[in-house]
Design brief:
Helix content is about 10%, strand content about 45%. It is mainly β. An 8-stranded mixed beta sheet has the order 6-5-4-10-1-2-3-7, covered by helices on one side. β1 and β2 form a beta hairpin.
């Protein structure tokens, strides 16, 4: 079972940027919606610890890691995309942060997604711990 950490490092009213680690190894950047009281499809996931399962996504037509047991939410999946227009309330993967058409974005999403899937290979279940970076951590 893999341990995944999503550590948020930037949160604005436009987007939430973070880093994704698998078993302690930095894998890629993430982009999520800003915090909007955990509303389905338009908010980032609440800070916490959740089960992860590899499941088939009919809409994306492939297997994706699904964040399970998010209160009041379903189908929260880690997938490819660049800006909050692509998130649907899910974390997106990217090789680096940047901007696209003036919007906060993650770039190199396909490559980062492939890196994440490779890091998770051989497993169908895991745990994801979502936290926010703070100067208080030091």
């Amino acid at each position: 079972m893999r341990k995944v950490e999503l550590i948020r490092v930037e949160s604005t009213d436009e987007a939430t940027l973070g880093g994704l680690l698998v078993d302690g190894k930095s894998i890629c950047w993430t982009l999520e919606e800003p915090w909007r009281e955990n509303q389905q499809n338009i908010s980032c996931i609440p800070v916490g610890r959740y089960p992860l399962k590899l499941e088939y996504s009919p809409s994306k037509r492939c297997e994706l890691w699904t964040v399970k047991d998010v209160p009041g939410r379903s189908y929260v999946r880690i997938h490819k995309g660049n800006t909050v227009d692509d998130t649907e309330g899910c974390p997106l993967t990217g090789t680096k942060p940047g901007y696209l058409e003036g919007k906060r974005a993650v770039l190199g999403s396909r490559e980062a997604f492939n890196d994440f899937m490779a890091a998770m290979s051989g497993s169908r279940e895991g745990i994801i711990e979502i936290s926010s970076f703070s100067a208080m951590n030091f």
